[in-house]
Amino acid sequence: MYGIAGKGNVVGNGTYNTKSGRVQKYICRRCGRVFCSRTNTAFYDLRTEEEKILLALKLVLKGMSLRGIAEVLEVKPETISRWLSRAAEQSEEINKKLLKDLNVSKVELDELWTIVKKRAAGTKRR
């Protein structure tokens, strides 16, 4: 029952406030571990609003420099770099789980994303 959702072993255990709003806390009845809805995400233990971090990541994807993003969002370039690293680590974890469950190689997954990006770019031009 460890790590399996919907088995009744995890229950709500209050909330706490952040700049982004309330965060739900949970406790596992089985092992007593306390965690929150941000645990194992790129937002865990960050004090910045989630929207600001997501905007920074979108701007990186659009090709804006880290220094430029930092200037616009009024944070240090190192902060943007740290957010980007966290997001990359989280993406890698998701890829690992996808590859395990789907029995797809990393090369095949990269090829799939290339196709998806080409199709998405084609629909934007129309």
TrEMBL record:
Domain of life according to the entry: Archaea
Residue ranges constituting the HTH cro/C1-type domain according to the UniProt record: 55-109
Pfam families: HTH_23
Matches recorded under Gene3D superfamilies: Homeodomain-like
PANTHER family: INSERTION ELEMENT IS1 1 PROTEIN INSB-RELATED
Name of protein: Helix-turn-helix domain-containing protein
Originating species: Candidatus Methanocrinis natronophilus
